[in-house]
Specification:
With 294 residues, this protein is of the alpha/beta class. It is built from seven helices and ten strands. Helix 2 links the parallel strand 1 and strand 2.
Length: 294
């Protein structure tokens, strides 16, 4: 088709006039897509695992198929004198794992006085930060203090938690706590949840909460194939992370979901058909709950 000079001029003017409209339309479409992505991400939950012993380099690619994040100890785990996770952050980050950074807390019996609480909390808060930095975790990473004991904690232990958090914050890291979300009956119609007890005493430090409640219900048992339940289903509405299955299973809490666990009582990843690596299962509102994959 052959255009006259006048026809070419009309065509050129039409293209110029339509360009702003085209740009506006493109911007609106892009903005709508970004809004949709943000909305879906805000409601999404992610599966993760944790275990005291590092599963080995060869296990990571297989576990990454099922899990977005993993627990990562920066101190020896309970019952251990060494830490097998040391030096593994880089490999895990390369494979796309997010992190739950863990530091072992004291037992209640080890905190005898207020002075003891202040000294040990300050020392271990500084040690937590130094270990996190040594492993390459950036400033702002949340370090979860592992508190294994449930029920109401004594005043000296709360002082220890506050001293630990203050030292961690002063070093540029953020405090979190791994603790029970399971009610403990104190008698006379009174029950207490450890997470609530800590939250009442934490101000203004704002811990991030990783809670455990493996009782079925609300826990679904060793069930990773059905997706990640919301951490709020743990019974603790403000929980960022929920550990809903433990290995080995605790029979007094998991009788209703016993069939979801392996015959040996442990929990395994869906892809671990050989049952090489028993795990605890977690769900979180972020694929990187500690923010340590940056």
């Amino acid at each position: 088709m052959i255009f006259s000079d006048r026809a070419w001029l009309r065509l050129l003017l039409a293209v110029v006039c339509l360009q702003p409209l085209a740009k506006l339309f493109s911007f609106d479409v892009l903005a709508a897509r970004q809004t949709d992505i943000g909305a879906s991400s805000a409601n999404e939950n992610y599966l993760g695992f944790d275990r005291n012993l590092y599963p080995g380099d060869a296990a990571l690619p297989q576990l990454r198929k099922d899990f977005a994040f993993a627990g990562f100890w920066i101190s020896p785990p309970p019952g251990e004198t060494s830490n097998s996770w040391t030096g593994k952050r880089t490999l895990m980050r390369q494979l796309g794992f997010g992190f739950l950074v863990l530091y072992r807390g004291r037992e209640v019996r080890e905190i005898k006085t207020a002075a003891d609480a202040a000294e040990k909390g300050k020392t271990e808060g500084r040690d937590s930060a130094a270990n996190a930095q040594r492993e390459g975790f950036p400033a702002g990473t949340i370090v979860f203090l592992d508190v294994e004991e449930g029920g109401r904690l004594p005043a000296n232990y709360h002082a220890y938690l506050r001293a630990w958090a203050d030292a961690l914050l002063a070093a540029g890291y953020r405090p979190g706590v791994y603790c029970s979300a399971m009610p403990v009956n104190e008698g006379q119609g009174v029950s207490i949840v450890t997470a609530d007890d800590i939250r009442t005493n934490e101000a203004p430090r704002e811990f991030t909460y990783w809670v455990y409640n493996d009782a079925c219900p609300p826990a679904p048992g060793c069930s990773a194939k059905k997706g990640a339940p919301s951490p709020s289903r743990s019974g603790t509405a403000y929980a960022a992370v929920w550990q809903f299955a433990q290995s080995p299973r605790r029979k007094n809490f998991t009788s209703r979901c016993a069939a979801t666990y392996a015959h040996d009582g442990n929990c395994y990843a869906p892809g671990d058909t050989a049952h090489k690596w028993f795990l605890d299962l977690n769900t979180a509102t972020s694929a990187d709950p500690s923010g340590g994959a940056k």
